[in-house]
Amino acid sequence: MKAREFAERRREFAARFGSGDEPRLYFAPGRVNLIGEHTDYNGGLVLPLAIERGTYVLMRRREAPPTRLYSAVTSLEAEFDPREPGAARRGDWADYAIGVFSILARERGAPPPCEALYFGDLPLEAGLSSSASLEVATAVAASSLGIALSPEEAARVAWRAENEFVGMECGIMDQYAVALGREGHLLLLDCGTLAYRHVPFDLPGASLVVSHTGLRRSLLASEYNLRRRECEQALSLIAGVVGERENLGAVSPEEFEAAKDVLPEVPRMRAEHVVYENARVREACAALAAGDPEELGLLLNRSHASLRDLFQVSCPELDALQEISLRQPGVWGCRMTGAGFGGCVIVLLEEEALAAYLDTVPELYRRATGREPSFLAVSPSAGARPL
Ligand code: ADP
Ligand code: MG
Q1: Whose CA is nearest to atom 15 of ligand 1?
Q2: Active-site residue flag, 81
Q3: What is the pLDDT of residues 330-350, one digit of tens each?
Q4: Which of 108, 201, 233, 357 is deepest in the core (most CB within 10 A)?
């Protein structure tokens, strides 16, 4: 985003909220997950990256309540009493932000009244985690109100906001990726212990593209909750054979193989996905360390097959886009990314093949599905920060 747009947004802020102190500007990126899908709420490993696009927020203190929030993305304003943010749940976009104020109020005492203008270049509901971006941007911007949070604290407050206030029981990957992204790096996160490490994405001549099916995720909430229960069921049956384990992420492939015969078909398939997906994240880190895009591509393809056949969260559009992508010259690998049932695939391909990919794939995909895809080249970028 350019300096000219920031200046325009500052004028918009003044027009809406009146003159006064200059508001401070903060940014939080979106994210995409390279590999490690449906492992986060199983305490497993994930390997996401923060992207260049994200959510910007201009924020400053106000003399008196109410707190006023405006999103230029949705053209909607919300007001609430900062002494009682927990009472302000509305069922719309502002809950992602108010939820952060509400968690902060519980953990640190109510933040002072403020006014904030949100804007950005991240598509909403497109699998790039605009919700975590909005939450983490709000948490980081709270430093303008005298509330300083480390990136880990900002991620945790944002995650609690989405779970406890918005009511979406998501894993913690998105908020961590958004808060802790690093330019040129992926974030290897153990969702069980929250230990993390930045892994260099150093594959000369390789590019990443996120290709959207044009299909909004449907079925998501019900199927997502069902998968969580199936994983819990699998875990308790496996524990009966190999002993107590905290979560499926702590079950090794060997333990799974030893226990799998006691599992009914569905929980067995779910557990097999999680256990081997977890192993694939480790293998992906090894492939990155070895500078081997071919091996990384194969792991992406195996991840997709497992999500499609074992975890059963793909859909015909994701499968079509994955297959079409794989047929293109210079493509090393491709898999669905995000919770599934629509949304995006991520493609690892040769930089030199990118233009031809973007030229050819839309028409092939349209013909196969009748849907309109969209594409975004991404590269690992820095996490949330003041600007
Ligand atoms: P995703 O996180 O994959 O983009 P979600 O459904 O989890 O999709 O969250 C999207 C919702 O987050 C939007 O529908 C909107 O309510 C809210 N949101 C995210 N970013 C913004 C923004 N900049 N302005 C207003 N609302 C936003
Ligand atoms: Mg989201």
Answers
A1: 93
A2: no
A3: 999 999 999 899 999 999 999
A4: 357
35: part of which helix (H) or strand (E)? strand 24-35
Query: Measured from the CA of 55, which atom of ligand 1 is nearest?
Result: 23
User: Of 40, 95, 174, 190, which one is the catalytic site residue?
Assistant: 174
Q: How far is the CA of 77 from the centre of ligand 1 (A)?
A: 14
State the distance from the centre of ligand 1 to the C-alpha of 130, rounded, in angstroms: 5
Domain map of the chain by residue range? Answer: 3-200, 206-378
CA–CA distance, 185 with 198 (Å, rounded to integer): 6
What 3-state class would DSSP assign to 331?
strand
Whether 175 contacts 136, CB under 8 Å: yes
Instruction: Report the distance separating Cα 275 and Cα 263, nearest Å.
Output: 14
> What distance in Å separates the CA atoms of residue 167 and residue 91, rounded to the nearest whole number?
10
Q: Does domain 3-200 have CATH number 3.30.230.10?
A: yes
For residues 70 and 73, give the distance between their C-alpha atoms in angstroms, rounded to a whole number: 9
Q: Please check whether residue 74 is in contact with residue 61, taking contact to mean a CB–CB distance below 8 angstroms.
A: no
Q: What is the pLDDT of residues 171-201, one digit of tens each?
A: 899 999 999 999 999 999 999 999 999 999 9
- The residue-averaged pLDDT of 232-243 equals 97
- The ligand 1 atom at the shortest distance from the C-alpha of residue 119 is 23
The closest ligand to the CA of 127 turns out to be: 1
Residue 130 C-alpha to ligand 2 middle, in angstroms? 6
Mutate to test the pocket of ligand 1, among 96, 130, 174, 376 (most ligand atoms within 8 A of CB): 130
Strands (E), 36-140: 45-61, 67-71, 76-80, 114-120
Bridge-partner residues for 386, per DSSP?
26
Residue 244: exposure state from Cβ atoms within 10 A (0-12, 13-18, ≥19): exposed
Mean pLDDT to the nearest integer, 66-76: 96
Q: Which atom of ligand 1 is nearest to the CA of 343?
A: 3
Contact 130, 187 (CB under 8 A): no
CATH of 206-378, one of 3.30.365.10, 3.30.70.890, 3.40.50.300, 3.40.190.10: 3.30.70.890
For ligand 1, whether the C-beta of 380 sits within 6 Å is no
- Ligand 2 centroid from CA 63, angstroms: 33
Domain 3-200 matches domain 206-378 at the CATH topology level? no
With a 6 Å cutoff on the Cβ, whether 56 touches ligand 1 is: no
